[in-house]
Structures are given as structure tokens and as C-alpha cells.
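Lab notebook: predicted structure, single chain.

Context: the supervisor wants predicted structures on file for every construct in the current expression panel, including those that have not yet been purified. This is the next one on the list. No modifications to the sequence; it matches the entry in the shared construct table.
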Amino acid sequence: MREKSILLEHKVYQTHYNALRNYYMYRRTPTRTKVMVCILLASLFLLILSETAYGFPFFKLIGLFGVVVIAAMYSWISIDARRLEKYAHDIVNKKQELTMTSEGFSAKWKGLIGEEKYSWTEIDHVYEDDTYFFLFIDRYSVIIIAKLEFKEHRVKEIRSLIENNANFESDVTGFKYNKF
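Prediction complete. Output recorded below exactly as produced.
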């Protein structure tokens, strides 16, 4: 029996990288994002309350400390996400050719030398949302598949292949994109 392969060709744009960066900073660790929002809201509440007749003097200090903690957390997250940029500079605005089989996949980009080959066991995890698949080879190396570039039956083939072979996390809401 001949092994079926899926050939995907599309250009990787800056918006694709921006979606990856957004996932990496906020959606990859939703608990951290929720904690940051709670700290920010509590800090703002304490700062507002410190200016009323019901406020204690230490409310302002705690509120300011919370804002500093949020700024430090955001800086740390942003520095971590910038490590993706080295990878992105290489592939943005390049045509990506991806061949997927049940054994693994290979990727090459027009204008870059060489072809990268991976087995499914090398993949850390795969994340899917309504518009992308992100195949994480390691923490900072990612293959981006823009689902909007392909017809629905092709996306289903890709999803099925990934589900059967990799650690798969889907965050699909059911949103359908229609071109006008």
C-alpha cells in the first residue's frame, strides 16, 4: 500500500507570525494571562480606593506594587516571545513547501538552502485555532500552516494526520471564514 502524502504550499506572511506571537504570549499559558488580569484589576481597584475616604494609606503602595509586577511580567513574557523572531526573520515572505506523511513531514522555504525533515516523534506539540496550525518542533521553532490558504477538505486531512501522530491541542470555535 502506498503511503499518502499531503503537499502544502503557501507564503508565510508577517500576519502569520503575529498570530504565532499572540498565541505564544497569551494563549499558550491562559492561567498566567488570567493571573495578570486579576493582579491588574486588583491594583487599579486599590489605587482608586486609596483616593477615597475608605482607603488606607497602604492601598496606594500595594496598588503601585501590583502595576510594577504586571510591567515586569509583561517584559519577561515579551523577551521570551522575541526569541521567536530569529526564526520568523528567516521565513517571513517566503513560500513554504510542506510535505506531510504518517511518518513525519519535511519543510522547505523558497530562497533558503536545504530542506528540514522531522518525524512526528520530534514534535513537541501542535496547536490549532480557527485560522492556523502551529507545529512546535521545540519551544522556539515552529512550522506555521495558515488554514485559510486551503480548502476545507484539505484542512480536515491535515487535522486528521496531526491528530493521529502528534500531541494535539485544538482551540477551534467553529468560526467559518467566507471570502466575498
